[in-house]
Amino acid sequence: MEFLERDQSVPAERFRRVVEAMSHPVVISDLQRNVRYANPAAHALFGVAPGDLVGCTVDDLIPPESLPEVRRRHAAATKGEPQHYETEVNGPNGTRRVVSVQSAPLEEDGVITGSIASLLDITEERRANSARAEMDARYQRLVETAADAIFTFDREGHFTSVNKAMEFVMERKKEDLVGHHFRDILHGPMATAAAQLFEQNLRGKRGRTQLAYPMRSGETRYGSVTTAPIVENGQVTGGVGIMRDVTEERRLADQLLQREKLAAIGQLVSGVAHELNNPLAGILAFAQLLVGVPQGADDQLDALATIQREAKRASKIVANLLLFARQRSPERTPTDLNQVLRDTLELRRYVLRTQQVDVVTDFDDSLPRTWADAFQLQQVTLNLITNAEQALRAHDGVKCITLATRMREGFLEMSVSDTGPGIPATQLDQVFNPFFTTKAVGEGTGLGLAISDGIIRQHGGTIRVESREGAGATFTIVMPFQPPPTVVPATPPPVPEVAGPPANFLLVDDEPAIRAALAIHLRRAGHRVDAAESGREALAKLVARRYDAIFLDLRMPDMSGVELYARLRKDDPGHAARVVFATGDVDAEGAREFLRAAGRPFMAKPFELGEITEMLMHVARDA
Question: Which domains does the chain have, with CATH numbers?
Fold first, then answer.
């Protein structure tokens, strides 16, 4: 520092000591970029011995690719323009360092003689920034190429980012999603589910749900959505969500569910057959008694009442079995858990009675209705009752199953307990695993409890087991109480009087007993009745005569009621408007959809003669 050596004043010496002690490298160069001074920190940065930098040129310290920029900056500084820039320099042992440079003109006696530069080593900072940038880029690539739909949103509910999969699911471009509120994009059940997750997110809680979303192609897909809050400085500022397409898993689960149902039906068949034969035997017996009883005798009335009662009992057995066996989409309705258990018990009552198993019920009659899928819950409870019955089958002690319900702190509880041999402690943790079973080969699929666990989880609940070997087992279901949506009941229209002049009726049914009974009943009331045992015979009668109302069975061998109705709509709309349908299985595949689309009155078999007569009279009067 020649200018300092010439100036021996106290300020100059103090300046020298300050520069020497600085942790930042300082380099002074002349107009030709020759180094005139470098402090110890500069020697350390460049990896040279103290004093060896003086006499070097700045060009010797800079990598070739960075040299043009450094020369330009040095020239600008020596013209009186302070500079601030970043560049690479040659470091110790052939390494390179990244430095932030602040340079200014150096004046001596009012003349610019070079530049003074302060350097800050930012190599590690740049490496960290580069690593973060690479990590961010890698994360962005992962998010963009993920098969799952990933999205973020702010605390107001606006989407802040979406990936390609989310664009596919929503069938919208990114620019049509980001910045928009979810309520402006989602509708119906999807909007309701999203609003529930959003509210949970604002409370700092994770959320999870399954939802169905329609595609423009008409296909319905199913997604499992999980959200988590984004917390910054202790405040929820938004959230992140992931939606996984579980359509195929859902289909597989439905197949497994139906398989388990079929397995359960196989166990029910023998018991239902015996249970059905009992009322049928009573009907046959009393029907034979009527043949030999004088008309109008008291015994005849008792026999008739018994026939009617036993027929209704048989009808209920069949209806319960059909409801359970049918493959159907999950649907939540106001559900009475006590009734679910009662209906399930009816399916196994005969078997339990023949196995000499006592059943104790401890139901909370004040239990409120909850928003749930009653048929899914019936499958769960049937599985638990069947398991309990099988555990007691070879048990030598007391045989008892206890069914209980209760409400506790906003949660509904159902429990099924047995007094059987219990479950070994080593197996308690495995009973809900798929395909795990303690039963003999051929007696169980190993799916019952796994499917039951999945159903209860879909209802936001849990199912647990408590057991000790030799002391029975208790399975307890705990579900949050969910009040059913409030629906304002529609005011029913006034029921019109059915009395009127004699009418012309056509009865179309392939069952002779139904045709005969209904014809006798209608004729006794003074009406004119024709009957046809097939759709083709009915067509011939409809051409020859006009009828006020037509009783039409849906299922017939030669021409179904569906086909006959289609012919009437096309060729004889006047008669089509007078049809009343009847079927033994309203919920059969395609039947409910057809009846809904037709918009005609219908009656489920078996029916009360008075009810079907009233319906036919209404149609006859209104048509």
Answer: 2-126 (3.30.450.20), 146-245 (3.30.450.20), 250-329 (1.10.287), 330-483 (3.30.565.10), 504-622 (3.40.50.2300)
